[in-house]
Amino acid sequence: METQTIKNTDKATKTTEYISGSEAIVRCLIEEGVKILYGYPGGAIMPVYDELYKYQDKIHHVLTRHEQGATHSAQGYARISGEVGVAMATSGPGATNLITGIADAQIDSTPMVCITGQVFSHLLGSDAFQETDIVGISTPVTKWNCQVTKAADIPEAIAKAFYIARSGRPGPVLIDITKDAQIEKFDFSYEKCTKVRSYVPIPKTVEGSLEAAAKLINEAKKPLVVWGQGVILGKAEEAFKAVIEKAGIPAAWTILGASAIPTKHPLNVGMVGMHGNYAPNVLTNECDVLIAIGMRFDDRVTGKLDEYATQAKVIHFEIDPAEVNKNVKADVAVLGDAKATLEAVLPLINSNSHSEWHQKFKDLYAIEYDKVIKDDLHPTKEGLTMGEVLKEINIQSKGNAAIVSDVGQHQMIACRYAEFNKTKSNITSGGLGTMGFGLPAAIGAKMAAPEREVVSISGDGGYQMTIQELGTIFQQKAAVKVVVLNNDFLGMVRQWQQLFFEKRYASTEMINPNFVAIAEGYYIKARKVTKREDLAEAVKEMMESKEAYFLEVCVEKEGNVFPMIPTGASVSDVRLE
Amino acid sequence: MSTEKQLFTISVYTENNIGLLNRISAIFQRRHINIESLNISPSEIEGVAKFTIVVNMIEDNVKKIIGQIEKQVEVIKAYYHDLDEIIYQISGLFKIKSELLFEERQIQNIIKESNARIVTVNKEFFVLEKSGKKEEIIELYNELSPFGIMQYTRSGLIAISKDEMKISTLLETYNN
């Protein structure tokens, strides 16, 4: 490695080193504070892997068993740490295998930087071996992407990538780097990016909007807050809690907003949306002021849009101006960072309690408890319910675990019943609904927060989409607790077939393998529970294990998730059975 | 706000970077919106490109599209206008057999009356250029058509807004 000092006329004297593009990539990652990255080597990224070998004391590369696993692990890492997750892959199939995770990160606003190798630049566009136009392919699902064909452009591209991924509304970024750029040597120096001219990460709060919002809140008789992940991403949990506590407003969460305040907080009235709680869904169509905070009115939350909260004045606290008025028209839009705007609105709002209005939530909760929750958590019939498994996990974890769920019925049950004391504890695939997300995301979550208990909850369907990541768990000694709620069905699809397709269970029944044997094949302690009397002890054993642990729970085959808002129905038409 | 579809021009000021056309066109494609015409050129500011996009949409949806366009990292600012709010031109090129220029007197009259310009003449063909509103170019096409047009093409709409688009000021605020 040669070192020299150059005099840059614009800037102060800067030290550069004459190194390869691939070494520069690794050095840039270290400069950005990356300690762990997830990936899979291959021809077009090999020079970078060679450098990673050299720098393994500074940066730990996790070899996942599939590139999709690398992105989901990076997502899990990002979601629990609040830092940028990093995934790496080779060109062609390696790069395309990242796409599902990138799309998932895009819709769930997860900060992620993906680095892909690319064929030599003189081969670009020639259909060379393992060449794909990954920049073109990833364009619709990235916040930003670029291709680098010269080593000298690497530092700026990576600096920009991290800045864009983590700032404003976070998202995934992809940098595709040709092999010649990796090999070429150049004078390396690194400067973090703090600004991109055309990019405004946090929009200015429109003058008067805070006052207008406060006025509506102060005059409201029946206000309802619906908060989303923006509260967590904006590190606004405390400000958020202060606002709802001062104004005494019942607050409901979207699936990605879960855990921003503790589940048992007296103002927490549950989840909104398709499988959300009865009270907040029904009362959405009764509130007089709806205060949306860091959420985007997804169709799974709103149901039929033209019957969604039409009686209410809507206040939308939002960082992304494109989300305002996209689905639901806002009477007052408070643009900006959630923490800053909530802190600014706090002194403008009056103390209130809204006790009569709260009583309505309690009354409807009692109905939901009677018709749904009681049987889910304290079943008396024979088959094990998914809800009672969650209840046992809550008991054992005391609400301190991070729950990483996959996609399907178990996910809805996990989100409905998992108890959280700490923020950033509910990690799931919200917007994209990616089966296969859970297991690899749990690996990333555990590596980001090794001191925390991380429980992955999957169904038998999604689990088998990324089951190979048990190999990563084993190799990394990641002490993830893996729970599979097995009903031998693609349960959510089956539920829809039962309710809307006259029980024609087309291709949803699964003949499953011996999951315990598979886990044991990966040298992971494993246990299967089929009877209620064994459940509590098995969950206890799992939670007390210092190592990774696999627990299969055979649950009732045709259990359903209620409440449910059928697609296209209004939120107030939520079904309890 | 009108709920009728109408023609809007969308002006997008961007950094001049590879791949941005893909990003912007994908926003329309994803929503099944046909782009009536598209022009990309340098703008009055060095290094800043200007997209002029014509779409037939209802205004409410144009506003949402603007939001999605502005969300792109390398987009500086996007505006939309209806056709009354801009000065615009379209250019049409017509390739016609040279013999017609001398044998068909009517052609000379058409050229004169339409204010079209002869770009080039050689032994085989001559090329006419006409700038103006789309209707004027179509009218010229209809008039020339009976004589035989060897090639015809029309540019995308290019536009200057009547109102000021304060990109330079905006860039100054970004730079500071």
TrEMBL record, chain A:
Pfam hit, one: TPP_enzyme_N
Co-factor(s): thiamine diphosphate; Mg(2+)
Gene3D superfamilies per record: 3.40.50.970, TPP-binding domain (3.40.50.1220)
GO cellular component entries: acetolactate synthase complex
Biological or metabolic pathway of the protein: Amino-acid biosynthesis; L-valine biosynthesis; L-valine from pyruvate: step 1/4; Amino-acid biosynthesis; L-isoleucine biosynthesis; L-isoleucine from 2-oxobutanoate: step 1/4
Cofactor note: Binds 1 thiamine pyrophosphate per subunit. Binds 1 Mg(2+) ion per subunit.
Catalytic activity from the UniProt record: 2 pyruvate + H(+) = (2S)-2-acetolactate + CO2
Residue span, Thiamine pyrophosphate enzyme TPP-binding domain: 406-553
Gene Ontology annotations of biological process type: isoleucine biosynthetic process; L-valine biosynthetic process
GO molecular function terms noted in the UniProt entry: acetolactate synthase activity; flavin adenine dinucleotide binding; magnesium ion binding; thiamine pyrophosphate binding
E.C. number(s) listed in UniProt: 2.2.1.6
Ranges for domain Thiamine pyrophosphate enzyme N-terminal TPP-binding: 20-135
Keywords for this protein: Amino-acid biosynthesis, Branched-chain amino acid biosynthesis, Magnesium, Metal-binding, Thiamine pyrophosphate, Transferase
Ranges where the Thiamine pyrophosphate enzyme central domain occurs: 210-344
UniProt xrefs under InterPro entries: Acetolactate_synth_lsu, AHAS_TPP, DHS-like_NAD/FAD-binding_dom, THDP-binding, Thiamin_PyroP_enz_cen_dom, Thiamin_PyroP_enz_TPP-bd_dom, TPP-bd_CS, TPP_enz
UniProt-listed PANTHER family: ACETOLACTATE SYNTHASE CATALYTIC SUBUNIT, MITOCHONDRIAL, THIAMINE PYROPHOSPHATE ENZYMES
Entry similarity comment: Belongs to the TPP enzyme family.
Full protein name: Acetolactate synthase
Organism per entry: Polaribacter haliotis
Phylogenetic placement of the source organism: Bacteria, Pseudomonadati, Bacteroidota, Flavobacteriia, Flavobacteriales
Gene that encodes the chain: ilvB
Automatic annotation (TrEMBL), chain B:
Reactions this protein catalyses: 2 pyruvate + H(+) = (2S)-2-acetolactate + CO2
Amino-acid biosynthesis recorded as keyword: yes
A GO biological-process term: isoleucine biosynthetic process
EC number: 2.2.1.6
Record key words, sorted: Amino-acid biosynthesis, Branched-chain amino acid biosynthesis, Transferase
Function recorded in the entry: Catalyzes the conversion of 2 pyruvate molecules into acetolactate in the first common step of the biosynthetic pathway of the branched-amino acids such as leucine, isoleucine, and valine.
Name the UniProt record assigns to this protein: Acetolactate synthase small subunit
Gene transcribed to yield this protein: ilvN
